[in-house]
Each structure stands twice: as C-alpha cells, then as structure tokens.
Specification:
Blueprint lengths: L4 E5 L1 H22 L5 H22 L2 E5 L11 E3 L2 E3 L1 H4 E2 L8 H21 L5 H26 L5 E2 H29 L45 E3 L6 E3 L2 H6 L6 H5 L3
Parallel strand pairs: 5-6
Antiparallel strand pairs: 1-2, 3-4, 7-8
Helix pairs in contact: 1-2, 2-4, 4-6, 5-6
Length: 267
C-alpha cells in the first residue's frame, strides 16, 4: 500500500534498560532494609533476568505497520493500521482441540522456572497458591498479547491452551523445587528473599516439610501441634493453647497458698 511502512521493535533496546533498572532498584531496596546479601543479590538477578527473558519471548519483536488507514475497527476482517485483523484467528477459547504439541511443551518449559523461583521470592509454597500465581501471570501475558496484536500488530494469539500449559509448568516447577529443597533445604535459605516461604519463619526449611503443602504435616499425614506438645499428665488450657502441668516438679514450683480463714484458724 502506498505510504505504508513497518517499524520493527526488538527486545534489546527495550528490555535491557528495564533489566538494569529493576535490578538496581530491587538491590537498593534490600540494602535500605539492611537485608542485602550476596545470595539474595544473585536471586534478584536471576528472577529479573528470567522475567525479562519471558517478556522477550512472548512480546518481541514487534512488527508495527503504519499506513494511510491508521484506525482500529474490531470485527472479523476490518482494516487495522493498514492490515486485516480477524479476531477468530487471534482468539482460541476451546481447550485442547487445536493443540499444537511443540508449542504446548515449550510453554510448560518456559514456566518451570517460575514455579521453582516463587518460594524464594514470595510466601507461597502450596500447589493451589502457586497455580493461582501461574494463572495470573499467564493471563496477563495472553491479555497483553491480544491487546498488542490488535493495537500494535504484534502477530500474537490469545490461546487457552497456553494458559493450561503455563499453569502446568508453574506447578511442575514447584514440585521440582520441593524435591530439591527436601534434600538441600537449609542450603537454600541464604538465597531466599525476606518474607519468602524459604526464609520463614516456619518449619518449611527443614527439608521434609517441603514434601507437603502444609509444613506442619508429618510424613504420615497427621498434623503436628503448633504451640508445644501436651504430654501425659497435662491438660490443655482454653487460653491460647497453653497447658497446665500437673507433674510433681511443676507442683513444687507453684507457691503454697491458703485461704484467709485458714490463716487465722477456725473460730
């Protein structure tokens, strides 16, 4: 079309400054709170680099066409920035019917690190919580791709199969992390950001606690007491789960008290 041209926007000029800026701000925030260590700095760098890599794969390069008909009309084949946009080709809401196996596997692989890194960054460790985070991230990506395709000509599609693959990859990444943490759990603590599931507080860092959603669960599925063990000869108190001991040693520790009438004798 006469007067039309295409502008290509590549990932490097956009995402490299973003990577540097996020890392610097994040490290400054940790330093301000006096919680910056070499291990946490490495985690910040890895997490930010991974996020930037996902953005590069899912949003770039942009091929933005400009022409004489620079207007947006939604429909089944309306001219949009000098090109035809068929919404049926941009949106797939039927799961698994038009599944492309290689793309499905690649989406799973792409989000494996997300599930593995989340316990080091956020206080999430259960499968449902991590799955929700994966769903939120995937929905944001798919929505951004759809808007970018309509408005900027990014040539991306919104596919429900990508949502399924991304959530699956996130959960599998968490399970892989759990297996590693069950073996080398304490070694991961120096790399955990403050407030994360690995940093605690809580019994999740002891290794075996990572094999279940609730770290208070034992290997046999029972729940361990959270506020001290109530042994034999003790009764539980209604105040905060405290216990009232009745052992001989505890009885000797309690002062002997008498009523006022007994102090003066009976009359």
């Amino acid at each position: 079309m006469p007067g039309s041209f295409v502008v290509a926007v590549h990932a490097g000029p956009v995402l490299v400054p973003l990577l540097v800026g996020v890392v610097v701000v994040w490290l400054l925030a940790l330093g301000h709170r006096r919680t910056l260590t070499a291990g946490r700095a490495l985690t910040v760098l890895v997490v930010t680099a991974y996020a930037v890599g996902v953005l590069a794969v899912t949003f770039f390069p942009w091929q933005i066409p400009f022409g004489t008909s620079d207007h947006v009309t939604l429909g089944t084949g309306a001219p949009t920035f000098g090109r035809e946009v068929a919404l049926r080709s941009l949106l797939n809401v039927v799961p698994l019917v038009t599944l492309d196996a290689p793309t499905f596997v690649l989406n799973i692989v792409m989000t494996l690190p997300l599930g593995a890194l989340l316990p080091l960054v956020l206080r999430v460790r259960s499968v449902p919580a991590v799955a929700l985070v994966g769903l939120a991230v995937s929905t944001t990506i798919e929505g951004g791709q759809g808007v970018g395709d309509v408005l900027l000509g990014m040539s991306r599609t919104v596919d429900v199969n990508d949502l399924i693959a991304n959530v699956t990859g996130t959960v599998l990444g968490l399970l892989c992390f759990r297996l590693v943490a069950a073996v080398v759990g304490p070694l991961l603590v120096p790399f955990a950001l403050p407030g994360s599931a690995v940093a605690g507080p809580g019994p999740a860092q002891d290794g075996a606690g990572w094999l279940v959603d609730d770290p208070a669960e034992t290997a046999y599925g029972s729940v361990a007491p959270r506020s001290g063990l109530v042994g034999a000869g003790a009764t539980s108190s209604p105040l905060g789960g405290a216990s009232t001991a009745t052992t001989p040693a505890a009885s000797r520790a309690v002062p002997n008290t008498r009523s006022p009438s007994s102090a003066y004798g009976s009359r």
